[in-house]
Amino acid sequence: MIGERIKSLREKKGYSITKLADLAGVSKSYLSYIERNVQNNPSLQVLAKIAYHLDTNMEYLLGEELAPKVSVEDVLDEEWHSILRDAVDEGMSSGDFRALKDLVRSHKWKDEGLVPGKKKTSNIIILHIDH
Question: According to its UniProt record, what is one Pfam family this protein matches (predicted)?
């Protein structure tokens, strides 16, 4: 499964096996073994390098059914640009955005255990600490 996902994403990006191997810093033969499922247990370090250059994440490569990362241009309409500009103008840093993203991800993880059909509620509290 890992190899199939890597090959599919590589082909969608238009990369040859040589190009991706060079970008990720792995040998062409090793990448070929992964794609053909001859090597089906690559290290997390190798997967991280490959995932980075395929604009995806290791979770997707490992078989989670999450879609690969989407290009920023595909999602950011004018409303998103406006929200981001306002946040930056108000002093929000990239670290703040990362912390907020991690908080939302953590909250979604907790909600996955809810009973089917039960309405999900949000109890996210945002704390801003000035340094």
Answer: HTH_3
Cα Rg, the chain, nearest whole Å: 19
Q: What is the pLDDT of residues 1-52, one digit of tens each?
A: 889 999 999 999 899 999 999 999 999 999 999 999 898 788 888 998 999 8
The C-alpha atoms of residue 126 and residue 116 are separated, in whole angstroms, by: 27
Q: Write the burial class of residue 75 (CB in 10 Å: 0-12 exposed, 13-18 middle, 19+ buried).
A: exposed
Amino acid at 118: K
Q: Are residues 22 and 60 in the same domain?
A: yes
Question: Phi, psi at residue 59, to the nearest 5°?
Answer: -60, -40
**One domain, residues 108 and 54:** no
3 Cβ neighbours under 8 A, 6+ residues apart: 34, 35, 36, 37, 40
Four-point Cα dihedral 109, 114, 117, 119, nearest 10: -70
Q: Are residues 27 and 60 in the same domain?
A: yes
